[in-house]
Amino acid sequence: MIRTSATDVAEAARGLGDNVNWSVLGKGRTAAHQIAECAIMTAGIMGILETGKEPEFDYAAFMEKVNALAEAPDVGLSALDVNTEALCKVVASMTAEQLATEIPTVWGPPGGTRSLKSFALLVQWNNTYHQGQIVFISTLL
Hints:
Blueprint: H1 2-14, H2 31-51, H3 59-70, H4 73-93, H5 96-100, E1 102-104, E2 113-115, H6 116-140
Antiparallel strand pairs: 1-2
Helix pairs in contact: 1-2, 1-4, 1-6, 2-3, 2-4, 2-6
């Protein structure tokens, strides 16, 4: 599921061709931004699975990385591919017990937890969501 969702979102972006950096009124997020976010989140989730901890989230730093990677769509697509393969290897190396491990998370109710498996599956959800954003962009061209 993770690999397929990465392939699908990448194909949606590639389908835009030269319009991968197009945005509504030149102000909205582009397909290149969507891909950059997917690539960066995939790497971030891999870090959570490897460490068993959710890092502090700095939105400004995250967006700085997204914007920088979006400047070079081919690099973003490559990063998505590389990060996805690395994440899939990490997931495949984990036991069912490891994946069932619950860790504290800020993404949910206060004091809530999420399993490492659930974190891994967030990548699939995130890629699918962003594929929808890219398809929507294509309807505006």
